[in-house]
Amino acid sequence: MGSENITPFQLREIILNARKPLILKKFNCQWSCFKDGLSKWCAKYDSYSKEKPQFEKMPVKNELNEPQWERKRTMERMSAMEFLNLYSNNEDCSTWSGLNYKRRNELPVESTTGVDFGCFGFPNVNDECTFWLSSKGANTPCHYDTYGCNVVVQIFGRKSWLLFPPGTSGLTTTRIPYEESSVYCLENFYAPTAMDVIKLSKLSGQCYHYVLEPNDVLIVPRHWWHFVEALETSLSVNAWIPLSCDVDNQIEECIVKYFMDKMIANKDSTTRHYLMNPNQLNSNTSDDELFNILEYLLEQKNNVYEHAAKKTSSVHQYHYIDENNLISLIKSFGNICEVSLMADDDWEMYLKRNCTRCNSEKINEGAVATTLRNSEDILINSICSPYIVQTIKEEFCRRYIKNKTKE
Length: 407
Known about the structure:
Helices cover 34% and strands 21% of the residues. It is α+β, with helices and mostly antiparallel strands. The model has no long low-confidence stretch (mean pLDDT 93).
């Protein structure tokens, strides 16, 4: 059976029970705002926008022995059509640019008409979906999302997705730069050095890879690592599906934020810029606010959350279908397949090709200045490592429950 035979209920079952990344090939969502093509979409965006949006900008050649963190990007105001004219079909650009992670309410209504994740069984996430308009080379450093599972719809152009399972050995977690709900790794897949290539080659046999074409849909299971890069001018829309198990990770993120807030207290602006992702620099939460949130989450976890999740359509149970039954369901549709492991030779070729972007003569000339000691950097990442934070959460929850029983 093809995509026209899949019901939203069946898609929801598949998405909520996927153990590995899945591709839904050539699934035409028929979202009306995109029916006239990318150029017309950009023109419509401009005609209804109150001002020119700010695009991220970054050199194609990497002068850092690290991922292209957001803190190193510059911002440039231009219209969507100016972006399209500058970057589309231009192979000689020395920079890439992107209008990334824009929530639906940040775009003109006319640019989002018809976008409805109800076709996947999740109508309640429509207001939270995000848009990504990217030129060739625009990339997101390798990370995993702490909340939800991810549904990605490729509208125009092609994007490369490199994925690794949760707990992949060889990936070094970091909370610097700190971004709530994202755990990054230190490995540089965009422009590895020659030494990096040797180290990263050891990840062979753990790498999943797929190039999304227009009308492809990618399902990213919870906590899967991913490095994403636009191979040409592209537009994609995604939505994170809230899960009942997210409450544990929300508690953990509260713990991380508490520690990070203490770590950045009294730091100079340069070091704060180094420690925090740009979107977190103005995210101020008092201790009272943070502990109110934390106590609310603890009550959800311990008393009502699971019960409420079964009665609401906005938060979903996860992995409730036996894997064998899921495989049978997937096989009944001819246009759904698992993302494949990369062959060893393809992985080596991928790394060596990306290595050519590394400007070895100027490596680290653009490094962010910081007064942070190396030992302090290590301490922050040690305290905030996922394993340690999970252990703290478990002990904290145990003590919290014990204390509640005394009241």
